Structure formats: structure tokens, C-alpha cells
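hey team, just a heads up i'm posting the complex here instead of the shared drive bc the drive is being weird again. everything in one block, sequence lines first with there labels, then the predicted structure for the whole assembly after. its three chains so it's a bit long, scroll down
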Amino acid sequence: MWSCITDFFTYETTKSVVVKSWTIGIINRVVQLLIITYFVGWVFLHEKAYQSRDTAIESSVMTKVKGFGIYNNNDCELVLSQGASIFCIITKMITTENQIQGFCPETESKYVCKNAAACKAGKPAGNGIQTGNCVPLNATHKSCEIQGWCPAEVDTIRTIPMPEVEDFTIFLKNSIRFPTFNYTKGNFLPTITQQYIKTCNYDKVKNTYCPIFRVGDVVAYAGQNFTNLANKGGVIGIKIGWMCDLDKSDDMCKPEYTFTRLDAMSQKNAVSPGYNFRFAKYYKMDNGTDYRTLIKAYAIRFDVLVNGNAGKFDMIPTLINMVAAFTSVGIGTVLCDIILLNFLKGAEQYKAKKFEENIPDYILLSQSSKLYDMIFCFLNK
Amino acid sequence: MWSCITDFFTYETTKSVVVKSWTIGIINRVVQLLIITYFVGWVFLHEKAYQSRDTAIESSVMTKVKGFGIYNNNDCELVLSQGASIFCIITKMITTENQIQGFCPETESKYVCKNAAACKAGKPAGNGIQTGNCVPLNATHKSCEIQGWCPAEVDTIRTIPMPEVEDFTIFLKNSIRFPTFNYTKGNFLPTITQQYIKTCNYDKVKNTYCPIFRVGDVVAYAGQNFTNLANKGGVIGIKIGWMCDLDKSDDMCKPEYTFTRLDAMSQKNAVSPGYNFRFAKYYKMDNGTDYRTLIKAYAIRFDVLVNGNAGKFDMIPTLINMVAAFTSVGIGTVLCDIILLNFLKGAEQYKAKKFEENIPDYILLSQSSKLYDMIFCFLNK
Amino acid sequence: MWSCITDFFTYETTKSVVVKSWTIGIINRVVQLLIITYFVGWVFLHEKAYQSRDTAIESSVMTKVKGFGIYNNNDCELVLSQGASIFCIITKMITTENQIQGFCPETESKYVCKNAAACKAGKPAGNGIQTGNCVPLNATHKSCEIQGWCPAEVDTIRTIPMPEVEDFTIFLKNSIRFPTFNYTKGNFLPTITQQYIKTCNYDKVKNTYCPIFRVGDVVAYAGQNFTNLANKGGVIGIKIGWMCDLDKSDDMCKPEYTFTRLDAMSQKNAVSPGYNFRFAKYYKMDNGTDYRTLIKAYAIRFDVLVNGNAGKFDMIPTLINMVAAFTSVGIGTVLCDIILLNFLKGAEQYKAKKFEENIPDYILLSQSSKLYDMIFCFLNK
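-- predicted structure starts here --
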């Protein structure tokens, strides 16, 4: 029994050969130096491996658009969840007033007809369901008749986007929280005064923390041409990045604004470019019949995307990475041995020293008796 | 001093014993082979450990629903953020026309009363706040009176969903961007022509990249029965997956569409199944009094979920994983030693060779003088 | 050729020195024990390293607000995507009836003027674009004239929030799915009955799984004072957490509700506190002119945030981590060697045993002939 315990508490360490060779010695230390540099410089300093991270940022965004144009801008805000992180600003509209449920000629060019044969009853057309009749569209042409909201919209009308939009301002209010560290912050830095906000406009140089953005600037920062964008509509992303090192002072945790065009495809691709949608305002006549104003709106949609990444010193990752670093230093030996035993003069002698003379061959596996001995050693004694 | 430097630049390597045993030799190589296979096959080829990844995909989604039915579909789109990644299609409605603020009997069956005693003044009922009176509901029954929009809605009416919805089409436009690699792409592949889009309909076999989806197909792909879904309402998820290996050609980075029912619970659970909501259209009489049309709408809601994962060759992960692979090959020795020293015939002899004769015991720790020697060695000399 | 193969299948193992020292033996075992404890206790039991994880939870949220107050609550729901994960409840309103497009004095105090000189034509004011005239605002003051919706809103009116909101109830329906494991679940636990839902109200003690939440309770759980919140408006986050160990029974996978104020900044920061937005209802006169009712609404916005994390046993991570554990046990030796060779009495003797006598020095690198030998050994023979 006792011998088992003494056996248990003996310590085995590898027997080493010391090689007094400048070449290999220097190579060895250089390799070790590289490994240490990697861990200190990259893993610890750059990647901050001594911190625990929180990327599951909680965020709430509120927005307000200010500006006046020939169109009533509320329409767009109305139909989008106010103050949410998506909103849009209408740049041009095609309005079809006083539509009522009824029968009228289809306006889409491809439904122009000579006679009823060309019109399939029950088949949906551009603005309603075909009745199968071919009726006069205007003095010169006839078109398939549809049932639906009449008169049908003519969306080929040329309208010019309203230039005022370029001077509209977007007010952004963003509060964030890193749950792991229970750290909350907002894009209104403590330094910002009521007075400043009244007057400021964001720009990338001087007013990098002003929460009010001029539409024209945002579009420009996203690398877009306002006139084109306003004409076809599009989606602009306003990204708010929170990269916070909570080991540093609280003031260092600031929002960073970046701007991109999200529907990039619209530019490349000729097929259905831009962004537009339809909505309607509903009214009732005295006799109770519904009528509506249909609006096809071209708009710039703004998506506010918030992302964040906070780090704070933590014991566990620090320890794990230090152990990793220490043990990794040993890796150098692998490389050095290859050199030592193959490329160095007198490699043969090194080999002789490193490897002991061989042992006669045994092919068969024994009936793992040895293992049981070890176990019973504890049990039986 | 000099001796310190020479000491510093000596190289230590472990002394090894060479065992000429087929058994252990083959086992050793096999184990090493397995480890190499794992790293090459799984870590590098399958997991692509040589790439840096970007999963923080930026996405913008635009949607348009086309179709005509007995209900005006815009209602639903109107109240949802157009073109956003959530939209719905109303399948059936219960409409209560000409409601005005006033007093009327509650329609919910559980508020039927014999006399005022059963009605609690001030307590909210189904459609308004109780006045405490018990008033005639119809020829046979009386019900508690409420204050609110009157007449109160009767939502027990049986209405059938409109079948046209099955043939409605959903137009999806999705642009994505992988910020790390500044790679942008859209679900309109370059191969897609204006002509194709006019005519195509998505299906899992031939038109896997057509951005137009028939509602009926989507519902079917999600494994749902349209009639049931349309009747009770529900939420369908349209998932767009972008798994892109940016080391391969650009054409290989394509969207993959999958469809699931998101409110799965609604199926299992009898308690409040399906999806419905209420909204109202507001009108004014000439005398200025407000009145409204209340609509209880059963709808299919579509949530478009975009996720992505792009990889591109990067030196750092490649190096790290190669080092890991090389060093891991050594692990085999651990296993082999156990076998060698326990299960092989003549293990005793191996032991004798591997372990050198023991050294007499020293219990006490010295006053760590040795360490200081080493340090002073540099300082003092 | 044959000799190459035999060479290939020889097995090298390190030669070890056995040290019969209680001190070092115990230290060695203790260190190994610590390492094993870390892996078993932390890595496997706490971090569940034997499971593969899925955090890409798919979720669908439906909400319904019930309650009656002096304001018609639908307004707010109307303009927000119903049943989506963001909705709001209006607590107070400033209503401006019968606005028409026209000319009227600006109501914002800072546009009070003595004469036209103070008013800049074309410049936007608070409620419209200035005409450049200075017109009577009331008996005593004059103000710059604007063009826009008139009469201009006076949003300095004191209104009190409606207390009824505190008793409104929020009905939450949340279905989730972990795609990796194709596991679906909902916040209506199987144990919940139709009867229970009719009557229950969520509370943190007894009814932790009731899906109906009283607004007052939610606000309280978020650590807010209802009266203040209702007065200025704000954003409350309702977080639903799904932490599921799918190796355990299905009943263990339950939702956990937590509540926070998301626009935390609003509290700290005096600049634009709270949450409010504007929207309008549009009407038409018989003569076709549009008029509207503008509403400035103070509201409590509720964002429902769902997050989840499911784990299930998986062979690959289990194996990898077990290998890591086994090999890590060896790390102890590094520490022990340092002690053995520096701090232990008789360290010199240990050194003598561990390190073999040195080998003469060779500076120059040979022309890597040795390597080629090895390779050709296979080719030529």
C-alpha cells in the first residue's frame, strides 16, 4: 500500500541534452522571441485577450425629421413606426385623387387593345381585375377595362423631386446598454449643451458628436448624388458604432457615425432601381361611399443600425491566455530539432546523443496484465 | 558576464529513446495520421480555418405585394412600414362601419345581464367602459351598457378568407454587404433580365433565383395548409441565407431562400391561435363629429430574415491553425507511452530504458538562493 | 527501401528522469489536480463544453394592448406595425383640430416680432416656412407669419397624462425556434389553460409564465415611476430570454422576462427627455380641400427583445475539449521543473541528472544535404 503512495508522489521530468551551438541557440531564442512578441503584441495588446467582451448591445433609437416642402412630409412618417430605427423622407409623389371602386380602362400601356378578344376577364392587370371588355382610354386608343379603384393611376407622369429635402434635418437619439457590464450611455455626450443642440449640424471634422444630421450631408457622406437618389429613391444606412474599452475612462466610450447606401444593388442593376411605395388616404362621401387619394411616393429610407463591442478586464481569460502563451514558447523546439538533426554539421553526433541505442523488437501485445497490476496494487494491498 | 551570454544561447532538447517495435510504431503513425486527417479534413477543408469570417452582414430589404381581392389590400401595407422586412397580407376582415363615441350595449356574450346589478360601472368590458346600466341588446337579451365607440363590434361573425390571396405575388429586393470585406451583392443576379423578372415565379427547382414569390407557394414551402392559415392568420418567415466563400468566383455567392412558420406555437396551442389585429379609418361629419370604420383583420404576416456568413483567406488564422496542427501531432505520444509501458510484452525493459534510476530524496525547500544567483549573474559580473 | 520503412515505423519517446522527492511530487500532483478541476468544473460542467450551441434564435412576436382611456388608443397602434416587436401606448396628447394649408402667425415664442425686419422670408420656422411678414399673434404680441398647416400648433399647453394607462394590459405571444436543433417552443407553456389566461396577470413571484402584463407592473419592474414616465414618455424594453439545455427535459426550456428602460439617457440628460411624436388624421371638405387634425402624442414605447441560447450534446466538441484537457495536464511539469532546478536543495544534482554533458560547438550551417538524403532514401532505393 505504502509503496503505491510513494510511487504516486514521485515526479517524472524529461531528460534533456544541452547543445552548446551558437547557430541553434540563437535560432531557438529568436523563435521564442517571435512567439512571445506575437502573444504580447497581438493577442494581449491588440486583441485585448485580458478582457471579457460584450457584443450583445441593447439599443433604443428615436428619430425626428424636421423640414418643410411642397409635399406634406408627415405622410411618410405616419406610415412608418415613429421614432423607430427605420424612417423615410418622401422626395417626390404621384397623386391620384378621388378614386372610387368601379370600372375604368387600364392605364398600363401593355393592356392597350383593339377589341375585347385581347382582354382576359378575371385576370389581374396593373390596377385591377380585367372585366374582359375593351373600352376607350383616350381619343386615339382603347384599353382593357378593369374593376378596382378608378380612375386608374398613371404612374408614368414625370415629376421632379423636391429640392427642399436636401436641407431637412434628422434628429437622432440613441441610448445603449451593455448588459454584461450593466453600462449605459447615450449619443448626447455630457459635454453637449441645450444651446449647442439648437444650433449644431453633424460633420465629420468639427461636430462629430452633434446628433442632428442634414439630409444632404448624410447622402454625400454615403457617397451618393442627391439629385439621382431623390429622383429614384433609395435606402441609406446610418450606422452608430460603440467600441468601448471600459478599463479606460468613461469619456472614451463615444458613438461613431458612418453612412453607406444599403440598397447598393439598385445602382448596379437596371432592374427596378430605387425605392418607392404606394399608400392611400381614405375619405367618405355624405352618401357613405368610400373614396381615396392614392399616392405613389419615391422616398429616401434611412435605416439606423446600432452595433457595439465593450471589453473589461477579467481574470479568467487573462489566466487562460497567459498559460497558452507560456506553453506556446516550447513550440520553438520542434523547429530547432529539425534543423539540429538535419541541417547542422555533425548532426550525426547530435543524433547519437539525443537518441539512445535501440531496443529489441516485440510484436505481440501482452494481455494487458500490467494495467490490472497497477489497479490491484491499490485495492489488494 | 560572457558566460551568462553563452549560457543563454545554449539549446536544450529532450533526450529520446528509439523503440524498434512494429506494434507501437504502427500505432504511433496511425494516431498521427488520424490527427493530421482531422486537421486537414475537418479544420481546414470543412471549417475553412484558413479564412477570416464576417457574419455581421448589413442588409436592406424592400418588398412589394401585388394582387387584387375583394378587400383593399393596401390597408395592411399602409399600417406596416412599407418595404421593410415585415409586412402582412390581410386574408379576411370583420368591418364595423360608422362607429361614433357614445353609449351602447356590450356585444361580448359574457356581459349579458338580467339587471343593472350584474354591471359594474367604470369597469372595462370588451369594447368600452361599463356604465353600470343593463340595456336591451336584442329582442330577447339584455346586456351591460358601455361607453366607447358604438355600435360595439360583433367579432363572432363568420367570414370566409378570400381565396385570391393565394395568387398574390411578393416581390423581394435584398441588398447585402459584408463590411469586413466591403463586399456588396443583391438577390438580383447579373444573369437576371428585365424580361425574366416580368414573367418568373420562384420555385425550388428551376427558378431558385427569381425574386418574385407566389403566396401560395411560400405557404406550401413552409409546410402549411393555405386555407387554415388564411382563416386564422399566422406568421411566415422568409429566410434569405448568404453563405459566401469570397475566395471562389463572385457568381458562387448566391442567396438561398427558406421558408418556415414562425408562430409555430399557434399550431400546437389551442389558446389564441393565429394572427389578427384591429385598426380604424377615421372620418368627420360636416358638424365635425368623428366617426370611424373599425376593422378586425386576419392576416398572414411575412417576416423577411436575412443572415449571412462570408469567409476570405487570411494569413493570421492560417498560421495559428497550422501551428496548432503541427504541435497536436505530438499528442499521439501520450497514448503510445501508456500502451508501451503497460500493455506491451517487455514493458519492464522499456521502463528501465525510459526512466533513469532514481535520485535520493530532499524534502526541504532551499531559500530560493539559486534563482537570485541567476539574476545577479547578469547584474554583478 | 526496406530500411526506410523500418525507420518509418520506429517509435521515439522522451527519456525521463524519476525524482523521488515528496516536495516536488506533491506540488506536481496538486498542480495537475488544479488543472483537472478547472476542466471538469469550469469547462465541462459550467461552460458545458460537451454541447454544440445555437444562439441564432428565430423568433416571432405578437402583441395586443387592451384598455380604454379618454384617448383612443388605436391611433398609436395604427401607426406602428401591429403585432410586431415594437409598439407604443399613448399617455397624453396635444391635438390641433381643423388645420388647413394657408398663412398664419408662428406660435413658437422665439419668432415673436416687432416688425417684418425680424422675419426672414423663405426660412423655415417651427411650423412652416416664413413669409417675411410680421402679423398679430394675439391682443398683445405680433409674430412672424408662416405658410403651412394653419392654425399652427401650440405645443406648450399643459396636459396631464391619462392614469387609465397604468391598468392597460399587454398580451405577448412569442414563438421561438432554434434552427440548428429544429426545436420550436412558445411562451404559452403546455400547462397554461384558456381559463388561466383569461384571468392571470404576470408577476415575478407566482405568475412567472403568464403572457399578460399590466403596464403599471412592467414600468415598476423596469424601476420607473409611472407618473413621470407617462408625462414625458419613454422606451421600455421587455426582454424574453430563452436559455435552454436540450439535454434536459423539454419543460426546463422556459422563457424568462426582464424589464429595463432602454432610453436610459433620457433620465440622465436634460436635453430632449422622453419620447413623443406627431401624426395627423386627414379629412376632406365637400369642396375637396384637405384639412387635418395634428396630434402630438407622448407615449410609452415598448420594444420586445428576444434572445436565446440552446445547447445539446455533440461528439466533436466533447472530443476536442477532452484532448485539450488531457494534454493540458502535462503543463504542470513546466512549473515543477523551474522549482526543481532552482529552489530545491540539491538542485545541482538534479541538473546533473536531467542535463547531459555538453557537445562541442558547430557554428556553420551545412548545405542541407541531410534533408535530401532522407527524401532520396525513398526515391532512389
